[in-house]
Amino acid sequence: MANLLVQGVEADATTRAIFEHAARISRVEKLEDLIRLNADFARDLAGADRCSLWLTDEKSQEIWTMVAHGVETIRVPFGQGLVGACVRDDEVILVNDAAHEPRLLRKIDEASGYRTQQVLCVPLCSENRVIGALQLLNKPEGFTDADAGLLGLLGHFAASAIESERLRREAESSRLLRHELNLARDVQSRLLPRNPQGVRGIECAGFCRAARSVGGDYYDLIPLRDGRFAVTLGDVSGKGMPAAVMMASIQMLLRSHLQQGPESLATMLADINETVFASSTAERYSTLFCGVVSADRRTLTYVNAGHIPPILLHANGLLERLPGDGIPVGLLPEAEYEQHVVQLRDQDLIVVVSDGIVESSRAEGDFWEEQAVEDAVRADGFIPIALIPEALFRHADEFAAGAEQYDDMTVVAVRILPRVSLAEGPPTLVYIPSI
After folding, report:
1. Are residues 233 and 370 in the same domain?
2. Could you tell me if 110 and 243 lie in one domain?
3. Which residue, 136, 171, 206, sits at the end of a domain?
4. Distance between start and end Cα atoms, the chain
5. Among the listed residues 425, 422, 424, 413, the one whose alpha carbon sits nearest the alpha carbon of residue 203
6. Distance in angstroms (rounded) separating the CA atoms of residues 36 and 52
7. Which residues, including other chains, have CB under 8 Å from residue 173's CB and lie 6 or more apart?
8. I want to staple 288 with a disulfide (CB 3.0 to 4.6 A). Which of 84, 89, 305, 334 is the partner?
9. Are 212 and 119 in the same domain?
10. CATH code assigned at 271
11. DSSP labels for 249-316?
12. 76 and 211 in one domain?
C-alpha cells in the first residue's frame, strides 16, 4: 500500500510538471526558445544526460537538430541512425545497450568524443504526420517504458506547440485555427477509452460526438484493482488545445488516484481540484461526475462537481436523478465535495450525459428539456446496452431537426447484470468510437 501511495505522489508530481510545462510553452513566442525549452524539460523529466530535438527537412530529405545538448547542428539523411528509423517508421525506439546496436551512427560519437550508451527516441507527430523526434541519451539505470510514455505525452504537446508556432510565422491565421482544432480533437479522441477490459457483473457503452468547434467532453471506464469499476464524465470549459491539455491532466490524475483505492472520493476530488487550480488559468475549469461501482455491484459511490445529475433507471421502471452538486474542478482554490452512496439492484441502469445532450437546440432556439431526456431513457432503457447511447443521440437529433449543434454530446451507460453473472465470466463492456 505504501508503494502505491509513493507511486501516486510521483504520478501527481509528474502530471503537474507536464501540465505546467504545457501551459508554459503555450506562452513562448520564439520557435528557437520553444524547442530548447522542450529539450531541456525532456532531459530533466527522464533523468537523461542529453537531449536533442530533431525536425524534418522535406527539401533536403534530411532530419536535423534544431537543439542538441553538447554538440553543434547535426544533419542525417532520412532513415539513417536510430533517430532516422524512429522518424521513418513513426515508432518509439528504446536501446539500453548501444554498444551492440547496428543502427547507431558511431561517426557522430567519433566526431564529438561522446560515448552513447543508452538511447530513447520518440517521434513528434502533428496531424497524422511525423515532423521530427525527441532523442534522449544516457540514463545510467537505463530507460524504461514509463520514460517512453512520459516522453510521448510531452512530445505530443511539444509537436503541437512547434507546429502552431510555425504556422504563426507563416501568418496563416485561418490555417492555424483549423490546425489547433484538429490537434484538440486528436487529443480529445485519444482520451476516450480504446480497449477497456471486460469486468464481471457490468456492461457499459460510451459515445462522444465532438461538435464542429471542438469542446471539452471526456469520459473514462476504469476497471480497478480491487474489483470495483469507475466511470467518469467531464466537460472542460473553453475549446481548442487549452481545453485538451486540461482534459489530459484531469484524466491522468483521476486514473492515478482511483487505482490507489481512495477511502473518500470527496477528499480525492478536493485534492485533484487543488492541483488543477494551481496549474491552470481562471477561465479553465471542468464539471465532472465520478462514480465507483462496488465489487459486489450493490452500491454506487459518487461525487459530482457541477455536472448534470445522472439518471438511475431501476429494473421496475422507476427513474430517479442522482442528487448532488459541487464546485467545478479548477474553478476555486479550495473546494469541498459531498460523497453520495446509492443502492443498486440487478438490471439497474445508470446514464450520464453531458450538457450537449440536454442543450440540444432547434434553429429557432428551443432547447431539449431534461424531462424529455428522462422520457427517452425510460423508453429505451431496456434495449441492448450498445444501442442506448445511439438511441439518445437519435432522440436529440430528431428534436434538433437538422440544426447545427455547437457543443460536444456524450452519453455513458452502465448496467448492473444479474448476480449470477458474477460467477459466469466476463460480460460485455462496449466502447463505441467517437464520431
Report:
1. yes
2. no
3. 171
4. 40
5. 413
6. 9
7. none
8. 305
9. no
10. 3.60.40.10
11. HHHHHHHHHHHT--S-HHHHHHHHHHHHHHHS-TT--EEEEEEEE-TTSSEEEEEEESPPPPEEE-TT
12. no
Structural domain range at position 392: 194-423
Distance between CA atoms of 429 and 202, rounded to whole angstroms? 7
Span 246-256, mean pLDDT?
A: 86
**Of 156, 171, 186, which residue sits at a domain end?**
171
**178 within some domain:** no
The most distant pair of C-alpha atoms in the chain lies apart, rounded to whole Å, by 77
CA 54 from centroid of its chain's CA atoms: 25
Cα separations (Å) of 265 from 204, 221, 290, 307, 388? 21, 16, 8, 15, 28
Residue 90 and residue 199 in one domain: no
Q: Are residues 153 and 226 in the same domain?
A: no
Residues 6+ away with beta carbon under 8 Å from 198: 426, 427, 428, 429
| Statement to judge: residues 83 and 119 lie in one domain | yes
pLDDT score of 313 more than 50: yes
Cell numbers placing 121: 527516441
Note whether residue 161 is domain-resident: yes
Q: Helix, strand or coil for residue 203? A: strand
Kindly state whether residues 260 and 329 are assigned to the same domain. Answer: yes
CB contact set of 416 (below 8 Å; sequence gap of 6+): 201, 202, 293, 297, 344, 345, 346, 347, 348, 349
Q: Whole-angstrom Cα distance, residue 401 to residue 363? A: 8
pTM for this prediction:
0.60
Place of cell 537538430: 65
CA distance 304 to 289: 5
Is residue 259 assigned to a domain? yes
Does pLDDT of 77 surpass 90?
Answer: yes
Q: How many C-beta atoms lie closer than 10 Å to residue 149's C-beta?
A: 12
Which residues lie across from 352 on neighbouring strands?
A: 412
Output the nine-digit C-alpha cell for 431.
Answer: 466502447
Residue-wise pLDDT for 357-403, tens only, equals 988 888 787 888 888 899 999 999 999 999 999 999 999 889 988 88
List the CATH number of the domain containing 27: 3.30.450.40
| Structural domain total, the chain | 2
Cell readout for 79 is 532513415
Cell numbers placing 240:
481548442
Q: How far apart are CA 176 and CA 131, in angstroms?
A: 16
